[in-house]
Design goal:
Rossmann fold; 2 domains
């Protein structure tokens, strides 16, 4: 019988040869799942007990998981979960898989909320609920609203809120966030990781993203029959934020790494919604890779929000 350590090494080599993204990590996580242990426990086992035999039932369970991975299915969907900001969220094909760079939204939100025990926030396009649930747990005195146009995604967000203990701190709404739903000057903070990919960018994505993650959460619908540029929802959210934020309120919105300059130019020139004068701060925030990742826009205290 083959040992766990030898089997794991072979699976890493197989995934590498097949061109699987993050082959070693994929093999580790799937074998840990088959053995019903954590990845840390698996690596500890291979180090301290290199001759331990792999049980046949674990081998069979891994084979089924491996087949799905070799077809391009992301590991997070195979496992049904993904860690975000130190918590484990349920994910499925109705929701995007949370990315590490999106944690920057929470980092900036917590800086803004520091010293403010109470407030009201909304998460536009909540998906798995990773932003709304995380902020509700980190700032329990704040009232939160989570909106999504997908009923299946909203059900997943509600489940994550229940499992993680944020159920009573959030209100969920099945709604199109591009419509004027919220009252004027009703929010202290607006969070969003909206669809921001262009059609051309989407076509160049990894197969696992294109075939499994929801397209509507990645690419905004085209306008006037033209290909989506990726800016459609971003500009709409900025306009909505200028109306629904309280004076001094903050918009934090994830964007594509090459969209920042064009988006800021549009915001500054949009006189209908106050243009640059609507905002006391209008910045781009970079992620750990040094790429533009967030629009940080604080509403001017004397801005007209009606």
């Amino acid at each position: 019988m083959e040992s766990v350590s030898v089997f794991l090494r072979r699976q890493r080599q197989l995934f590498t040869a097949e061109g699987v993204e993050s082959p070693a990590l994929s093999a580790d996580l799937l074998l840990a799942e088959a053995l019903r242990i954590s990845r840390e426990e698996l690596l500890r086992l291979t180090l301290l007990e290199p001759d331990k035999t792999l049980p046949e039932e674990a081998r069979q369970a891994f084979a089924a998981l491996r087949e799905r991975r070799l077809k391009g299915e992301p590991v997070a969907y195979i496992l049904g979960r993904k860690e975000f900001y130190g918590r484990e969220f349920i994910v499925n094909t109705s929701t995007l898989i949370p990315r590490p760079e999106t944690e920057l939204v929470i980092d900036e939100a917590l800086r803004f909320c520091q010293g403010k025990e109470r407030g009201v926030f909304a998460d536009f396009g909540t998906g798995s609920g990773c932003l709304a649930v995380t902020l509700a747990l980190e700032k329990p005195g704040w009232e939160g609203f989570a909106l999504d146009i997908s009923e299946a995604a909203l059900a997943t967000a509600r489940l994550n809120a229940h499992n993680l203990g944020a159920e009573g701190r959030l209100s969920f709404a099945l709604a199109d966030f591009t419509l004027p739903l919220l009252p004027a000057a009703s929010l202290d903070l607006l969070l969003s990781n909206p669809p921001y990919l262009s059609e051309d960018e989407y076509e160049k994505l990894d197969q696992g993203v294109r075939e499994f993650e929801p397209r509507t959460a990645l690419v905004p619908p085209p306008a006037d029959g033209c290909k989506a540029s990726g800016l459609e929802h971003l500009c709409r959210i900025v306009a909505i934020a200028a109306r629904v934020l309280k004076p001094g309120g903050l918009l934090l919105m994830e964007i594509g790494s090459r969209q920042g300059p064009a988006l800021l130019e549009q915001i500054r020139g949009d006189r209908k919604n106050g243009g640059e004068n609507a905002w006391s701060e209008l910045l781009l925030k970079r992620d750990l890779a040094g790429l533009d990742r967030l629009v940080y826009a604080k509403l001017a205290k004397l801005a007209k929000t009606g």
